[in-house]
Amino acid sequence: MTTDTADTAAPAAPLLRAEDLHVSFAGRNGAARARAVDGVDLDIRRGEIVALVGESGCGKTTLARSLLGLVPPTGGHVTFDGKPLDYSSRALKAYRKRVQLVLQDPSGSLNPRHTVYDAVAEGLRIHGYGGDERAAVAEALSRAGLRPPERFFLRYPHELSGGQRQRVVIAGALVLEPELIVADEPVASLDASVRGEILALLLRLRTELGLSALVVTHDLGLAWNIADRVAVMYLGRIVETGEVEQVLTAPRHPYTQALLSVLPEAPGDPVVLTGEPPDPSRIPAGCRFHARCQILASGEAERAGVADACRGRDLEVLDGAGGTQVACHWARATVAG
């Protein structure tokens, strides 16, 4: 006898997962350790683009480098394709074939003495590629939008435009056929006219190759144009996360609201945050944003009955699985009310 069952299959496991990740650095002359990443859960699913946004110094680049295995965590762990990340040299070499980094400055990423061909072929040579190197380089350049690829083989970086150099960097990542790319400010150094082309390229690569991507940026406009989900980071933690349209059209955390308020198309007056983010070696008690929070300063948190909690009660690490979440006493109180 057979029994019909409803399709209740669980969602596919994430391609990459960080669980309670911590990265800290020793302070100078006996100073307290700087907690650059201070408890982060984050999932990236296959074929998904996640934007990690926040001010400079919030920990997002350190988090990205830890996910790449470049900075071992001091707590928590990273899993890729269901297996814990192994930090031995051999295991990391194999991992970095599957997970590639695209840096923000193509001029700094490319050796000025290397031709485009050598720049793209470098990864193949490091990993002992046994196939047709010329064909692989040509295919990667073509996928990155440099066509015909042979026309670029013998050029040097100084002979290319900024957009072309960024495409070469992307081709250097694509040549190894990775499953995930981590793009750190991929269009920050490019002219506005070229930014859209590179973003369109990343979206096309996701569609054609099934690539996953973590895009690290301070630009919420970029996140809106490219990401499926967004994670907003402040002082070592993700403070708001969810589907990009939900978070960016109805932000709940005061920090996210402030970041969005300075975009040209944002309604109302920009929110000017006072002061700088606190020192990561001296993270304040309570909500780590409370010293700069416009909601607390205006008295709204007091009226909602959460001002003391804002100043003295820490918030838990947000689940990285993808639902809309916010680490804010005031936001939670106003929803509950």
Automatic annotation (TrEMBL):
Tagged with keyword ATP-binding: yes
User: Which residue ranges does UniProt annotate as crossing the membrane?
Assistant: none
ABC transporter domain spans which residues?
16-260
Xref: SUPFAM superfamilies: P-loop containing nucleoside triphosphate hydrolases
Keyword check for S-adenosyl-L-methionine, yes or no.
no
Give GO terms: molecular function aspect only: ATP binding
Annotated InterPro entries:
AAA+_ATPase, ABC_transp_ATP-bind, ABC_transporter-like_ATP-bd, ABC_transporter-like_CS, Oligopep_ABC_C, P-loop_NTPase
Signal sequence, renumbered to the chain: none
Looking up CDD domains in the UniProt record yields:
ABC_NikE_OppD_transporters
Q: Which PROSITE patterns match?
A: ABC_TRANSPORTER_1 (PS00211), ABC_TRANSPORTER_2 (PS50893)
Q: Which UniProt keyword terms apply here?
A: ATP-binding, Nucleotide-binding, Transport
Recorded superkingdom:
Bacteria
List the PANTHER family hit by this protein, alphabetically: D,D-DIPEPTIDE TRANSPORT ATP-BINDING PROTEIN DDPF-RELATED (PTHR43776:SF7), TRANSPORT ATP-BINDING PROTEIN (PTHR43776)
Q: Which family does it belong to?
A: Belongs to the ABC transporter superfamily.
Its protein name is ABC transporter ATP-binding protein
**Source species taxonomy:** Bacteria, Bacillati, Actinomycetota, Actinomycetes, Kitasatosporales
